[in-house]
Amino acid sequence: MQPYVRGQIYLGLDKVMKDALYLHYRAFRLYAPVGLHLLKAAGALEEGGLFLCELSEERQEGYFRLLTTVRENYRGDMLFRMPERKPRKWKGVLSVMEYAMNLEKELDLAVRILYTQASNTGKSELCDLLRTHFLEGEQKVLEQMQAHLGTVRSLEAKKKQSQRVQYSLKPKDEGQQESVASNEPLCLPIFRTSAQLNLQPQDNSADD
Asked: What is its main location (predicted)?
């Protein structure tokens, strides 16, 4: 069901508000399944999975805070269209985490742009909302996301090194038949971002 609101929120803020809403929507729909996947993997990835699950809840809360603000200030008719649910195949955990990192950076930038424009147009209530619930602690979130991405990269590097060693110890015909687990596609209910936001997943397969 598409979020339905009425009218224009603040003159000059419609586009950046939409961007912030879309990014929060995509974030909480992405982080939850990725987090659960990492929790099932356990080991060194378990902490990252818990972090993403908690961050998904925060992004969902932020999305509904923004949507409530929009609904309370709109007059007229406007429909906020969200992308349809389409599962995508990713090259592996690393490609998903890199996409999540880029998404979080775009989300932070969108909120900061919204805050700047709201400040320039004298929307003090919106500024207070963004500063209190969105901007505070965002730098820490980015640092944690980067740390967990580093963990995944380190594990992928060790896995590839181990596979190269095993390959060198096997007879040539057996080694050629060996499948690399890290290259197996990872299918998650992740949603394609709009071209306007310039967020593209690492998967090079053709769009649906």
From this structure: other
- Per residue in 127-144, pLDDT tens? 999 999 999 888 999 999
- How many percent of the chain have pLDDT more than 70? 64
The reply to whether 69 falls in a domain is: yes
- pLDDT band per the 50, 70, 90 thresholds, residue 178: very low
Query: CB pairs under 8 A, 24+ apart, for 139-144?
Result: 141/55, 141/104, 142/104, 142/105, 142/108, 144/51
How far is 50 from 39, CA to CA, in rounded Å?
7
For residue 201, being part of any structural domain is answered with: no
Q: What is the pTM of this model?
A: 0.71
At residue 116, the pLDDT reads 92
The enclosing H or E element of 155 equals helix 138-169
Using CA of residue 33, residue 188, residue 47, residue 51, what is the dihedral sign?
negative
Crossing angle, helix 93-120 and helix 138-169, to 10 degrees? 160
Alpha helices by DSSP H, 43-137? 46-73, 93-120, 124-130
Structural domain for 58, as ranges: 4-83+93-193
Q: In this structure, what CATH number is given to the domain that contains residue 141?
A: 1.20.1260.10
Q: Are 71 and 33 in contact (CB under 8 A)?
A: no
Domain total for the chain?
1
